[in-house]
Amino acid sequence: MHILLTNDDGVRAPGILAMYRQLSKIADVTVVAPDSERSSISQAITLNHPIYHYSVPFDGKIKAHAISGTPADCVKFGVAVVLKAKPDLIVSGINNGSNDGCSVFYSGTVGAAREGALMGIPSLAISLDSGSEPDFTVAAKVGVKAVRWAIAHRLPSGTFLNVNVPDVKERDIKGLILTRQCKVPIHGEFCQRQDPSGRKYYWLTGRPSAQRQDQGTDTYALQQKFAVMTPVLCDVTDHAFLNSINEARVE
User: Fold this and answer.
1) Residue 179: Cβ-neighbour burial (10 angstroms; 0-12, 13-18, 19+)
2) For the chain, what is the domain count?
3) pLDDT in tens for each of the 251 residues of the chain?
4) CATH number for the domain including 230?
5) Domain for residue 10, yes or no?
6) Residue 133 resides in a domain
7) In sequence order, which residues have a C-beta less than 8 Å from that of residue 199 and are 6 or more positions away?
8) How far is CA 135 from the centre of its chain?
9) Residue of 75, 146, 143 whose CA lies nearest to 114
10) Is the residue at 80 inside a domain?
11) Cβ contacts of residue 130 below 8 Å, gap of 6+?
12) Inside any domain, residue 131
């Protein structure tokens, strides 16, 4: 089995190294990641600038591929240029910070997994609900469990797994469960500050908790120390509404 591993925190981030060390126990792993952090960039791709490619030392014994593009670029570049073929699986992460709920719309980590799914490759995004001193080792072990589950259950074409792991000791994780996405908006507050010149500026911040105590959502279950997997569709069409309309033409 060959896995393409990427992230949005950059090729030198501790999360991708921890994930590599666990995945390399079960598969051949090629690392293609951004040369610096590309967080909150969603599924953006680079069209109006060149993409530069570098080989960098990784874990003391292999070379990783660092590129100047986005996480989604890494997937495209990894398949088309580095591997010249589709890998068996794409893993994106481990992200330093959770990507539950509405984060799926903003996250570069999730964007890379979505890109893989659009290409017909089974893909997973893996994130750690990090504290001040994150330990990615446990999340990497959970990530391998999620990979094994995805392989065993053969993800449908156009579906990827969004995995989030609480930042607790392995013995304190209550289990790895399937959940649905929480839909509570995030980052809805602005903190006003002042720069040295006296000009006001604003910093987007804030992250509300789940509104309902519903273990069926990723956000709430993660708060309760479950590791969670949410199957996410690339097709965001509202099929129920579309099918309820008895007309094909609007005018």
Assistant:
1) buried
2) 1
3) 999 999 999 999 999 999 999 999 999 999 999 999 999 999 999 999 999 999 999 998 899 999 999 999 999 999 999 999 999 999 999 999 999 999 999 999 999 999 999 999 999 999 999 977 899 999 999 999 999 999 999 999 999 999 999 999 999 999 999 999 998 887 778 999 999 999 999 988 866 655 567 778 999 999 999 999 999 999 999 999 988 987 767 77
4) 3.40.1210.10
5) yes
6) yes
7) none
8) 17
9) 75
10) yes
11) 96, 97, 98, 167
12) yes
Which residue type, as a one-letter code, is found at position 84?
A: K
Distance between CA atoms of residues 166 and 152, nearest Å: 24
* Strand 189-194 versus strand 200-205 pairing type: antiparallel
Domain that holds residue 224: 2-183+212-244
* Residue type at 14 in one-letter notation: P
- Which tokens belong to 26? 């079960």
In angstroms, rounded to a whole number, what is the distance separating the alpha carbons of residues 66 and 53? 6
Rounded Cα distance, 80 and 244, in Å: 41
pTM: 0.93
> At how many degrees (to 10) do helices 14-23 and 136-153 cross?
50
Specify the 3-state DSSP secondary structure of 168. coil
